[in-house]
Amino acid sequence: MMDNSYSAIMARKNEIIRNSVGMDYTKFELPGIGFDYEAMMAATGYTLEELQRVQALFSVGNTPLIELKNLTTLARKCAKPGFGARIFIKDEATNPSGSFKARRSCTSVYQAKKQGYKGVVTATSGNYGAAVACHAAMAGLKCIVVQECYDSRGVGQPEIIEKARKCEALGAEVVQLTVGPELFSTVLRLIEETGYFNASLYTPFGIAGVETLGYEIAQQFRSKIGKDPDVVVCTNAGGGNLTGTARGLRKANCNAKVIGASVNLTGLHMASDEQFNKKSFTTGHTGFGVPFSVNPDRSDVPRSAARPLRYMDRYVTVTQGSVFFITETLASLEGLEKGPAGNTALAAAFRLAQDMPEDQCIVVQETEYTGAGKHINPQLSFARQNGIDIHFGDPKDEIPGKSIILPSHPSLIQVTDVDLDHVRRSNIKAQVGAHKDELTDADIRYLMEETNSSEEFVRGVVASL
Amino acid sequence: MAKKGDWVQVHNIVLTPEERSASLPEDTKKHPLEMWVKGWLQEDAELGDEVEIITRTGRHTTGKLVKEAPYFEHNFGVLVPEVLKIGDMVREITFGGNE
Known about the structure:
The complex is a heterodimer of chains A (465) and B (99). With 465 residues, chain A is of the alpha/beta class. Chain A contains 18 helices and 13 strands. Chain A is 43% helix and 14% strand. Chain A starts with 5 loop residues before the first helix and ends with a helix. In chain B, strand 3 (50-54) and strand 4 (60-68) form a beta hairpin. Chain B is of the alpha+beta class and 99 residues long. Chain B contains two helices and four strands; from the N terminus they run E-H-E-E-E-H. In chain B, strands 1-2-3-4 form a four-stranded antiparallel beta barrel. Chains A and B meet through helix 5, strand 4, helix 8, strand 5 and helix 9 of A and strand 2 and helix 2 of B.
């Protein structure tokens, strides 16, 4: 009889993952603290063209690029004369399963099928579950989705319950848990029990799948607008969206600035039972965005393929109230009814556009589907039910977990810069750990790549540790 | 009374508070880690009984029977008048007012 206690399962972690991803991560480890990221990405064995072909098999990709002309007009009314870049959105909700996560899951599911696995397991409370369930259905594989869904009173986040419904509708088994990071041990136990493929969000297969999104943006801009976009804004949580998109832009030789955007949930603890239902966003927020930038390898694979600090030119936050406001604005001005979490980058882009000249272009690279529970109205309704004070005012006064302030005028929507050098310092500190005195030149070069910073910066941080 | 072959939901305690990860916030640590799974009931049973089910993936698992014929009740919430006001505001600023 297998020992299924928490500690025993966690002790078998590496072996379970190696068997369930079909990839030996140890071969990418370098002497010292680093690993060969590009070798790991190349180990998928797929070129970008092959990824496009695989995605076409699942009818994923080639989503519309929509110019938001009325939203641009509104941004220009809030900007000084001559400013207000043209705002575009990539309508990723039109993918089967309703989000960009389709790109991430179909390569994983394809890989699982090719390697002969009978099913896939994934840990996610988000759109990724629906994407994996969708592609598993197409590939004739079984699918288990494990969600963190309820607080200790048994009250579920409406947004997560909707995703459970969608996964079940697509034939998946949904395992729902209360709040806590030990979800991971339940996932490992299920992988071990079933022998299924671990369709983690953070394998090279998943992240490589998002490269087609960045690539398509460059191609569509060149054919529709006749030039490259100036700025691409990505909602940032675990970092895979931004990483894959930025890599795809580079593969298309597009030099657009890549800006990450997260909903500000500062002060709320992600593993807190009491605060679980005080959040009105279950993803796209700083509670994932910041820790996963500081330490990408906190994910469920030994080395995460999502490494946003390598690619981020700037990182900003927006308030919950601003994202709800812009979601309603997108419906009212553009006739596009979408889920709020995917509009995090849109709220940021609306403000960022106002600092850019009118002839420049800014693109938001995703939308997500909407439905019962996963929509501005039920999410605000649920927040009010949970004692959150919702009113019009200045969003800068919003306190996550206490209030949601809807801007009393669109010109009050602001972005707040995250100090990226601070994040870089924390990242270096986390990676160096106890090895400060053993670092080689190769380690320093690795840290420069990891944090997209200069040798002087890295050596300065290391010396200060 | 649930019948063999009914679609049901079962509940399990995965970890008791004592067995949970040491790094949790205090408010979370005082509760067990709980789990809910749905499947086809394998024997007639009453609510609260320990039962066996077969899930959509064909997995045999056990747990306390907590719901017969579970279904989704999430919806679009109650009226939030602010949502309507946002729509009116941005239309007015974008299209209205001037010429």
